[in-house]
Every structure is written in structure tokens, then in C-alpha cells.
Design goal:
The structure is a single chain. By secondary structure, this protein is of the alpha+beta class. The chain is built from 20 helices and 22 strands. The strands form 5 sheets. Strands 1, 2, 6, 7, 8, 9 and 20 form a 7-stranded mixed β-sheet that branches. α1 packs parallel to α10. The longest helix is centred in the C-terminal third of the chain and has 23 residues.
Amino acid sequence: MNKSLENIYDVAVIGGGHAGVEAALAVARMGKTAALITMDANRLALMSCNPAIGGIAKSHVVKEVDALGGLMGRAIDATGIQFRRLNLSRGPAVWSTRVQADRIAYTKYVSDLVGAHKNVTMVEDVAGELLADGTAVCGVRTEQGEIIRSRAVIVTTGTFLAGLIHIGEKKIKAGRMDEQAAYELSKSLLSLGFELGRLKTGTPPRLDGDTVNWEKCEKQQGHEPIPFFSYSNGRRKVDQVACYLTKTTAETKRIISANFGRSPIFSGQITSTGPRYCPSIEAKFHRFADKESHQIFLEPEGNGTNEIYPNGFSTALPEEVQNSAIRTVVGLEHAKITRPGYAIEYDYSPAYQIKPSLETRRVRGLFFAGQINGTSGYEEAAGQGLMAGINAVLYIEHEPPFVLDRSEAYIGVMIDDLTTRSTTEPYRLFTSRAEYRLALREDNARDRLFGYAKKYGLIPEGDFAEFEKLKKETEGVINRLRRTRIKVADLGDLGIRFKKTERISLENLLKQPNITINEALPFLKQADPALPDRHEVLERAAIFIRYSGYIGKQKREIEKFRRMEEERIPFDFDYETVSGLKVEAREKFLHFRPASLGQAGRIEGVSPGDIAVLSVYLMRHKGAD
């Protein structure tokens, strides 16, 4: 609800998407007041595109957000309708979780929880102008004229910042279908001196599930036991729904190819860059002209609706072409479109204009999070929103910012990528972006981040104590696995390379190919029936033992990395005085203002020679101080 004409809060958060809700709740959990400015307080964290959370690398961020007390993991656990684990045939570094959501239930869960928090006030309006006192932000004026005074502001506008929808030749000013865009806020950012660019994303049409011939499609079931995301959720029973796999046909390709010229992506109507890893169906057929067919995943949007999301069929073609093309897909011969697909262009702020804390370089106390920084995805937005919320509070309290490095979290990888590289297309996380991915697994997010959560008051004290207990239980299981020796003859036909007359430890057994904790568990329980039989404890112990050598090697690499990160560079360091730098390197350093020697080395166009020169000058600078 709206308060009086002018109100004072600690932090104002613009936007009620996945970044905005995490930012507002982080502020609230740290004991500060937040004004959440959103167009509809009942549609927070609405899934504008695919109704799912997680996936490759994205699930790691969800686990990290959860370990820092965030909301996303709890929300999807409570409203998920299908749970799957991905990449299980590979190592634990890339194991990922993906959960299909009940889209409406998800946004209701989030809206109810955020709306009930005593430190969060909903302001249903459109942000129009950022208010600044000199070089520091001091609040927001809404388009309806309400003034919200605050000591910090977090901008999380998603696709709403000067959003423009395209369906064929038709253009609609909107941040989402049938929802107003924020054009005045773009003008305000420009007036403050920010550089803005344009990016594009898109969404497929939605289908009436009653018109789909499911028998022609390949069924995909969820996994048991259910891989929940959050450490804090009760393990509810879920009647999992099925998703389905189908594919386009030669006729699909013919119709779409014949209408390339009517797509705004090819007609010149759209000039901004879209996501490389999630192209429209017309871009797929154009880019991969020799490929006759593309996979389409049919995903239900929830338990209370028949609406289906055809993942892989994002399009901006005219509605009549969408109707014709969708009915050439296997199983969709009589499908009815309930909502057309569309492309949307929106403003973003190139991320060299933010610090690793997500505070802007130009205006103190102003933070950017989510798609305004050039990213895509609910999970990437949530991670940034959480960090912006924490750092906004630390800014208010005159405390040093909280910055995760690349060896600590995928959130750290993402923010470092954004602040050291020029984003010219929507950024998406992948496990391949992380150099230390074996150390950044899903299962150890709390090991990495729970200490920070406790430090900043983001979790209940009892949760930390409970986790310390879990770690001790894990250590106990590891020690028992090392001490327990069994006869190879008792193992039966497991295919391990030991003589039947030998005895081996359960530790060595787990290091054999294709041996899991399930094979070792009967012997473990026989040796010590009192040991905990918790799946999480057993899996953590098995991963530690099986990959201990690799983990140790990665720890040594991380120590070397951190030595470079500890070589700090003052923000006002005068690069013009550094002789021996290539011109390109000097320009990049002035542009990005790296915070450390390690970060400087990750900037594109900078050579090892430039880093060596800079290192010498930094040592002299330190000596002069």
C-alpha cells in the first residue's frame, strides 16, 4: 500500500522482479527499512519467460542465494511441480538442479512473504526520477509524483526500462505484455550521465494443453528422491508432473524461412543484440540453415492451468505466422495459441559503470542489479539483487562492501565478468565460466558462504549452529570410511580391480569407477550402526573422498589466485604516470578501474607484460605511501 506523500526509508528498491525482491528482503533481514516500488504488489517475481528455476550453473547461484538467506530456493521448493538433476553422468562440479514451477503459485508465495515483512513497504507506482544531492542519491520520485526519500537506491528494472515489444511489424511500448514500461527513468539515468544501451530478449507463444497430442511426444519424468534447493525447507511430498519433448519438422523450417523478412529480428526493426544461447526459432533456422529440426520442450506452467510453455520456440514473427508454424511441430498439429510470442528491447547500463559491490561509479549510494547490468535469467538477477541489498546496507553503515571473488561463488564469477568485460549481449552463466568449479559445487554452497550469512545477520543463529553439526557429522562419516576395511570377496561382482583375497578401506572403494556411496553404505552401517543415515551427509562425505586429490590441487590454485587479488589498486590510481603500458591497456584500466592486480589481468586486451609493468608501479606506489 502507498503511504503519505513523502516517506523516508533506508533503501528504495525499484522493481519487483527476482532481483528486486531479493534486494528488499536482504535489506529487511539486516534490520533496515526498504520501500519496494513495483507496479503490482501481487505479481512479485513473476516468471515472464520460462516457468522454471535452475539449470546448468544457474542452480549453483540459487544454492548460493539460499546459503546467504535469500528467497528463491525456498520459493521454488514450495511451488515446484517437477524436480530434476542434470549432468549426473559427469562429475559433481557440474551437477545441477532444475525445477519446473507452478508459475502463479510461485509469484503468490513471493508476494505474500515479501508483503508480510515488517521492514518492507510496497509502493505501487512507476519510478520516474532518481533524486540526487550532489554526487549521492537521496531518493526516487514516482511518475504519480510521490517522493520516496532514502539513503540508498537499488535499480532492478528488468525489461521494463524503456521496454518495447515487437510482434511482426507491430510495436508496443511495454515492459511485459499488457504492462507499462518505465521511460521516464531512462531519461533520469541519462541526465545523471549514465551511458545506456539496448538489448533484446524474447519469449515463445503459450499453448492450450488440451489441444496438444501428448502421445506423439516423449515424456520426461521428475527425479526421486526430490532434489530440493533450500536447506531450510521441510521436505514436502510432491505429485510431480511430466514435461514432454518434441521437435520441429521440415514444414516448420519452410514456413519460418519463407517469413524471415517479416520478423523484426531480420527486417531491421530490431537493431539491438539478443541472447546468443537462447535464440529465437527464426534465428535458429537462419543460423543453422543445414539443420532440418530443432528440439522443443513442452513445459506446463502450473497445476491450476492448462497453459503450456514451448521452450525453444521463442519468436517475434507475426501472430498468423506463429499459428501456422506451431502447428507443424510434432504433436502440435491442432495446438491453439493462448498468447503470442514476442521480442522485447529494453535499456541497460554497460556494467563498467558499476563497482564490484554493484554501486555505480558515478552516483554514490546508487546500485544496479539484474538485467540493467546486461545479464539474463531469473537466477543471475536474484544473485545480483541479494548482493546489492547487502551492500546498500553496508554503504549506509559506512562499512566495507561485501564482494565475493571468483574462487568463492558463481555470484563472484558473474559480477567479476560484468565489471571486467564489455557486455554487448545478454550475459548468461555457465559452469565453463568458473575456473575453480570443482570448489564451487552445488553441495558446498553453505560451506563457502554460511560464514558470511552469519556475519551480516542474513540467517537465524540456530541455522548456523545446525550446519556446524552437519559438518561434524560429515567429518565423522569420512573418518569411518577411512577406518573401515572390508574383504573384497564380500563385495560381489562390482567390477573393482582388487584381488578377492585382499581387504580394502571404504575410502578406496569409493575411489573406484562407478562406485557410489550406496555400495559402501551397507558396510558402513554394519561397522557403526549409530552413524547418521542422512543423504546430504553421506553425499558430502563421498564427494570429499572421491575428489580429495583434485580438490587439494584446486585449493593450491585458489591460493595463487588470491595472492593476485590481494594486490589492491587504489581507485584513483594514476595510470597516465605508468610508462611502458600499451595504449590499449592504459585505456582499458582507465575505463574499468580494476580493484586488484588479478582483476586487471582479466580485462580483455591486457597482456601479461602490462600486468608486470603495473605490478612494479604498484609496489613503488605502496612504498611511497
